[in-house]
């Protein structure tokens, strides 16, 4: 089994943290409008320690490495399996 240190963490790390924004939507008919504020917080997934990596198991081919009951990595189809880890978590707070 290969280690997960081969993953390029710089792209993910550049997105981590808190992001804020606002949106203001107006309709063409009538005087209806919507103002919304949002706060998004991206953080590393705490379950990431359960991830694994195999050289012949690529996400672009709908495959993911999953640990079996013995702690060994197995390549599984993403559509038929349940992944209990990800690269990051998103927390969204929306005020309308």
What does this molecule look like?
With 96 residues, this protein is mainly beta. The protein has one domain (4-95). It has 1 helix and 5 strands, in the order αβββββ. The protein has one helix at residues 9-13; strands spanning 17-26, 33-44, 63-67, 73-77, 88-95. The strands form 2 sheets. It has a 3-stranded antiparallel sheet, with no helix packed on it. A hairpin with a 6-residue loop joins strand 1 (17-26) and strand 2.
Shape: elongated
Number of helices: 1
**Number of E strands:** 5
Computed over alpha carbons, the radius of gyration is 19 Å
Cα(first) to Cα(last) distance is 47 Å
Q: What structural class do helix, strand and pairing data support?
A: mainly beta
Low-confidence stretches: none
Indicate the percent of residues in helices.
under 10%
Task: Compute the number of structural domains.
Answer: 1
Mean pLDDT: 78
Following the backbone from N to C, one meets helices and strands in this order, namely HEEEEE
Major beta-sheet overview: 3 strands, antiparallel
Strand order of the largest sheet: 1-2-5
Strand content: 35-45%
Q: What features would you highlight for this structure?
A:
96 residues; mainly beta; two-stranded antiparallel sheet; 1 helix; elongated
What is this structure, in a nutshell?
The protein has 96 residues and is mainly beta.
Give me the secondary-structure topology.
Elements lengths: L8 H5 L3 E10 L6 E12 L18 E5 L5 E5 L10 E8 L1
Antiparallel strand pairs: 1-2, 2-5, 3-4
């Amino acid at each position: 089994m290969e280690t997960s240190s081969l993953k390029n963490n710089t792209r993910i790390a550049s997105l981590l943290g808190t992001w804020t924004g606002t949106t203001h939507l107006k309709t063409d008919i009538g005087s209806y409008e919507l103002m919304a504020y949002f706060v998004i917080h991206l953080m590393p997934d705490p379950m990431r320690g359960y991830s694994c990596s195999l050289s012949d198991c690529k996400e672009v081919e709908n495959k993911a490495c999953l640990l079996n009951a013995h702690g060994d990595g197995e390549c599984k189809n993403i559509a038929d399996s349940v992944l209990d880890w990800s690269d990051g978590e998103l927390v969204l707070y929306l005020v309308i």
